[in-house]
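User: New here, any thoughts?
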Amino acid sequence: MTRAILNHALAQEAFDMVSPHIEAFLQKYANQTDMAVVISAVEAINSNDARKSFKDNCLLVTGFGDTDGWALDYERIALSKAEKSVRTGLSSAMVEPQYFCEGDTPYWGSVVLDGIVVGCSGVEGFYDEMFSMWIAAAIKALCKKRIAELPKGQHFI
Protein backbone atom coordinates (compact mmCIF):
# COMPACT_ATOMS: atom_id res chain seq x y z
CA MET A 1 0.00 0.00 0.00
CA THR A 2 1.28 3.45 -0.90
CA ARG A 3 1.60 5.83 2.03
CA ALA A 4 0.34 9.30 1.22
CA ILE A 5 1.80 12.49 2.66
CA LEU A 6 -1.63 13.13 4.14
CA ASN A 7 -1.81 11.02 7.28
CA HIS A 8 -3.20 11.24 10.81
CA ALA A 9 -0.33 13.38 12.12
CA LEU A 10 -0.64 15.93 9.32
CA ALA A 11 -4.44 16.04 9.68
CA GLN A 12 -4.07 16.62 13.43
CA GLU A 13 -1.51 19.39 12.83
CA ALA A 14 -3.82 21.16 10.38
CA PHE A 15 -6.76 20.83 12.78
CA ASP A 16 -4.64 22.25 15.61
CA MET A 17 -3.65 25.22 13.42
CA VAL A 18 -7.23 26.13 12.59
CA SER A 19 -9.15 25.07 15.72
CA PRO A 20 -8.53 28.23 17.81
CA HIS A 21 -10.07 30.31 15.01
CA ILE A 22 -13.05 27.97 14.72
CA GLU A 23 -13.63 28.04 18.49
CA ALA A 24 -13.49 31.85 18.53
CA PHE A 25 -15.90 32.05 15.60
CA LEU A 26 -18.33 29.58 17.17
CA GLN A 27 -18.50 31.61 20.37
CA LYS A 28 -18.68 35.05 18.75
CA TYR A 29 -20.90 34.49 15.72
CA ALA A 30 -22.73 31.19 16.13
CA ASN A 31 -23.43 31.28 19.87
CA GLN A 32 -22.40 27.62 19.84
CA THR A 33 -19.52 25.61 21.27
CA ASP A 34 -20.28 22.13 19.92
CA MET A 35 -19.14 20.80 16.58
CA ALA A 36 -17.81 17.55 15.11
CA VAL A 37 -14.98 17.38 12.57
CA VAL A 38 -14.13 14.46 10.27
CA ILE A 39 -11.04 14.42 8.06
CA SER A 40 -10.63 11.87 5.29
CA ALA A 41 -9.68 11.84 1.62
CA VAL A 42 -10.69 10.29 -1.66
CA GLU A 43 -9.60 6.69 -2.28
CA ALA A 44 -6.55 7.71 -4.33
CA ILE A 45 -5.12 9.43 -1.23
CA ASN A 46 -6.56 7.45 1.68
CA SER A 47 -6.89 3.77 0.82
CA ASN A 48 -9.74 2.38 2.86
CA ASP A 49 -9.62 -1.00 4.54
CA ALA A 50 -12.91 -2.68 3.62
CA ARG A 51 -12.85 -4.58 6.92
CA LYS A 52 -13.07 -1.31 8.89
CA SER A 53 -15.91 1.13 9.34
CA PHE A 54 -15.80 4.48 7.56
CA LYS A 55 -14.99 6.14 10.89
CA ASP A 56 -12.03 3.82 11.48
CA ASN A 57 -10.71 4.61 7.99
CA CYS A 58 -10.81 8.38 8.61
CA LEU A 59 -7.61 10.30 9.26
CA LEU A 60 -9.14 12.21 12.18
CA VAL A 61 -12.49 12.30 13.96
CA THR A 62 -12.68 14.97 16.64
CA GLY A 63 -14.79 17.87 17.81
CA PHE A 64 -15.42 20.84 20.02
CA GLY A 65 -17.45 21.12 23.20
CA ASP A 66 -18.86 18.50 25.54
CA THR A 67 -19.59 15.56 23.25
CA ASP A 68 -21.76 13.90 25.90
CA GLY A 69 -24.00 16.96 26.04
CA TRP A 70 -24.41 17.56 22.31
CA ALA A 71 -27.99 18.37 21.31
CA LEU A 72 -27.62 16.13 18.24
CA ASP A 73 -25.21 13.39 17.24
CA TYR A 74 -22.94 15.84 15.40
CA GLU A 75 -20.25 13.21 14.96
CA ARG A 76 -22.60 10.84 13.16
CA ILE A 77 -23.84 13.68 10.94
CA ALA A 78 -20.27 14.83 10.14
CA LEU A 79 -19.27 11.25 9.35
CA SER A 80 -22.23 10.92 6.98
CA LYS A 81 -21.37 14.19 5.23
CA ALA A 82 -17.74 13.14 4.81
CA GLU A 83 -18.62 9.61 3.69
CA LYS A 84 -20.95 11.01 1.02
CA SER A 85 -18.11 13.25 -0.21
CA VAL A 86 -15.57 10.41 -0.24
CA ARG A 87 -18.02 8.22 -2.14
CA THR A 88 -18.94 10.85 -4.76
CA GLY A 89 -15.83 13.03 -4.86
CA LEU A 90 -18.10 16.06 -4.39
CA SER A 91 -18.61 18.60 -1.63
CA SER A 92 -21.89 17.65 0.05
CA ALA A 93 -23.67 20.83 -1.13
CA MET A 94 -23.11 19.62 -4.70
CA VAL A 95 -24.37 16.05 -4.21
CA GLU A 96 -27.68 15.56 -6.00
CA PRO A 97 -30.34 13.42 -4.27
CA GLN A 98 -29.97 10.49 -6.69
CA TYR A 99 -26.53 9.89 -5.17
CA PHE A 100 -27.86 9.59 -1.62
CA CYS A 101 -27.80 6.17 -0.01
CA GLU A 102 -29.88 4.81 2.79
CA GLY A 103 -28.51 6.22 6.04
CA ASP A 104 -27.04 9.39 4.47
CA THR A 105 -27.79 12.69 6.16
CA PRO A 106 -29.57 15.25 3.97
CA TYR A 107 -27.45 18.02 5.52
CA TRP A 108 -24.47 19.57 3.80
CA GLY A 109 -21.25 21.01 5.16
CA SER A 110 -18.43 18.80 3.88
CA VAL A 111 -15.94 19.82 1.22
CA VAL A 112 -13.62 18.12 -1.22
CA LEU A 113 -10.52 20.20 -1.92
CA ASP A 114 -8.20 18.47 -4.38
CA GLY A 115 -9.08 15.08 -2.90
CA ILE A 116 -8.97 16.22 0.73
CA VAL A 117 -12.31 15.59 2.43
CA VAL A 118 -13.43 17.40 5.56
CA GLY A 119 -16.90 17.27 7.08
CA CYS A 120 -18.10 19.45 9.94
CA SER A 121 -21.41 19.40 11.78
CA GLY A 122 -22.76 21.55 14.59
CA VAL A 123 -23.99 24.79 13.07
CA GLU A 124 -25.73 25.84 9.87
CA GLY A 125 -24.52 24.14 6.70
CA PHE A 126 -22.91 27.31 5.36
CA TYR A 127 -20.75 27.62 8.49
CA ASP A 128 -20.03 23.88 8.57
CA GLU A 129 -18.86 24.16 4.96
CA MET A 130 -16.70 27.20 5.76
CA PHE A 131 -14.98 25.43 8.66
CA SER A 132 -14.46 22.34 6.51
CA MET A 133 -12.78 24.49 3.86
CA TRP A 134 -10.54 26.18 6.44
CA ILE A 135 -9.31 22.80 7.64
CA ALA A 136 -8.92 21.40 4.11
CA ALA A 137 -6.92 24.47 3.06
CA ALA A 138 -4.63 24.06 6.08
CA ILE A 139 -4.09 20.40 5.15
CA LYS A 140 -3.26 21.35 1.56
CA ALA A 141 -0.80 24.01 2.77
CA LEU A 142 0.96 21.53 5.07
CA CYS A 143 1.24 18.97 2.25
CA LYS A 144 2.82 21.62 0.01
CA LYS A 145 5.10 22.71 2.86
CA ARG A 146 6.32 19.12 3.24
CA ILE A 147 7.30 19.01 -0.43
CA ALA A 148 8.95 22.45 -0.25
CA GLU A 149 11.06 21.27 2.70
CA LEU A 150 12.56 18.26 0.93
CA PRO A 151 16.35 18.38 1.16
CA LYS A 152 18.07 19.76 -1.92
CA GLY A 153 18.88 16.93 -4.28
CA GLN A 154 16.22 14.59 -2.83
CA HIS A 155 14.22 13.55 -5.86
CA PHE A 156 11.71 11.30 -4.12
CA ILE A 157 9.56 11.59 -1.04
